[in-house]
Amino acid sequence: MTGLFNYVKGGLTAKKLVDIFTNRKKLSDDAKKKSEFVMSSKDKDGNLIYPNADKDLLSHYFLSGHMTNEVGPGLSFAIGVGKEALDSQRFPYLNPSQGYFKNSTGFSMDDLGADYAGATNMDFNEAYKRGLFTHTESVPQNNDWSQPSVYGYGEGNFKKVIEKFK
């Protein structure tokens, strides 16, 4: 477990953790701006350069990359996994009838794939070519996106996401 934190510049202290989560908003805003730029990028003929990219997955990629620069790949990815666990709204002591976090989208394997690509500094074009900025999830129960997909664990197909890394 300590290996996960060895990369943190200057060691992991309570102040460093506070700084990381304080800066998360700034990093998140920067990731969203980069995502918007990518989504609107066009070639000389006016065609989108990345037509199959999803803005949310791009944000996950860029934010994880930024977090890697702050705390290293292991902790960056661990933060992404923790965020998805919280998004799942399935913790028994956190208001199980409605979910603890308002506006959360649920657990997403697709988000984790983009997080992993960003945390490991996978080349952007390589991640795009592998399809890490596109969703694999099925339509959720009753076409209600607040419900988990038919796979029973949230959005995304685990096997399809893993295949993107082969």
Reported for the largest beta sheet, the result is:
none
> For the terminal residues, how far apart are their CA atoms?
26 Å
Q: What is the 3D shape?
A: globular
Radius of gyration: 17 Å
Mean pLDDT: 77
The number of helical runs is 7
What is the number of strand segments?
Answer: 0
Helix content: 40-55%
- Summing up helix and strand content along with how strands pair, one would put the structural category as mainly alpha
Low-confidence segments? 1-5, 91-96
Count of structural domains: 1
SSE map:
Elements: H1 2-5, H2 14-40, H3 55-71, H4 73-87, H5 109-119, H6 124-129, H7 158-163
Provide a quick synopsis of the model.
The chain has seven helices and no strands. By secondary structure, it is mainly alpha-helical.
Features:
mainly alpha, disordered N terminus
Question: How would you describe this structure to a colleague?
Answer:
By secondary structure, the protein is mainly alpha-helical. Helices cover 52% and strands 0% of the residues. It has one domain (2-163). It has seven helices and no strands. α2 (14-40) runs antiparallel to α3 (55-71).
